[in-house]
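Have a close read of this protein, sequence plus structure tokens, and explain what the tokens say about the fold. Thanks in advance:
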Amino acid sequence: MYTPRILLCGDVKNFLRELDGRSVDIVGRIRFKGAAERGQFVMPAHKSAADNFTLNEGDFRIFLDGDEISADALRKILDGQADYIVIENHDEFLFRFRELYALKLIDRVVTVPTLLTYARDGFFAPDNAVQIFNLIHATEFARVLDFDGYFAANDYHMFPDINRKIDGIVRDVNFPALENFYWTIYPTADAFRYKHFDALLLTAERTPAEFIDALIDTDDLTDNVLTFVRRGSALESWLTENQNVFAQIKSVPAVNGSWLRLKKFATKSFAAYVVTHKKVSLDLPEGYRIIHAGHALSNQTFGELVDDAGDNISRLNLQLNEVTALYWLWKHTRQSHVGFVHYRRFFTVDGQNILTAHEATEILREYDIIVNEAHFGYVPERDWKIMLSGKTLADRALSSMRKFIALRQPDYLDAFDRVTGSFGVFGYEIFVTRQNIFDAYCAWLFSFIVDATEDFLATVEVSDDPYEYRAMSFLTEHLLTVWLIKNRLRIKPLPIIFRDDI
């Protein structure tokens, strides 16, 4: 918790009573005497603080813990040892206002109500909010996440953001005007757990350990962190000693500290896996690798990867088709961006060439997942499955699937029923996304799909007709759609190139 370091102007007992248990570090007692007592610089009703006025060195006296100090000495104390001057008596604050303004101290002087309202999570200064807002809009960042709700807490939300570059976490949205400032408002971190931002704004006071934890918890969200570092804080010392943790640190001086832009070391990698069950000849872009699905059931090897090495479900390939390869990739590979396509179906941007690694990663700067354009048919998905594998097998497959979704993922049962009866899905269960989204989808899918398939096999007899073997596979094809409609992802549909010559 942020503990303000203050110079108190006023009565300690009254001040502590007003704090109502809030932790504050009183580093000194301060007293002013001079200009205000003589009636100088008292603000007339028709004047403003911006009017020109001067203050001579002999017009005031400042006492700290009984010893007289200069205004310059006070400013130095406020640049490390103390965060604020807190004037306990509000009338005293008004009485001193023009004097403090002339001394260029007014941005560091607050009353007790201001301290309690605005200095809850970290150091507060209006100029700092203006500064970081302007810095964000001067960068190349298209989307920034205000992780600690900094702008909402500091009243800057009253100035609508015309360019709408900032999203925010605001747990209690009591004022609809916030919606004019933030592009998107999230109530909790869970609401955006699969998204990616150009930068993350961390402003709450954190110890070095808490800051490291925040970086770890948000690692998948961004490659850049914007943070305020209070002068003289433990975090400032830690960052000074550990600059090599980041690829680049840029500092901009601010009131009582600095705004830092921390750029992480690049860890981007791309791999798109092409699933096949037969020998294929493909001219693939860099980053594409072929994986043989159902290798455990074959006496040949097609592709550089096989789905039956180590932890695998290759034995279920007749029922689950490409999903056995998906399982193997989930268990045995890792990269920042991952694609999953078929030997006949590839994403394309221009309609002629296979999607490249560069094109994919650029799209995933703005979107969370690339999928095939939705397919809309003339009959619901359930009826389409019946036509493919017959009513008996389709019903048994549906029963097993629904039973295990209800058991393992009950929150998705309504979505499953909706998609099963719908006229459209994202086709073929192919996609390109970031690793954390890939992991989340696979963890969800494989929490029930293997057991559902085993249950299906225990209740049916299938003939040699390959389409009967694929009753579960046909149903599995629309599970990606089920997962997507339950999660808040920015979806980018792309057309596909279909290789009918293979």
Q: What stands out?
A: The chain has three domains: 5-117, 126-263, 270-498. Residues 393 and 461 are 9 Å apart (CA to CA).
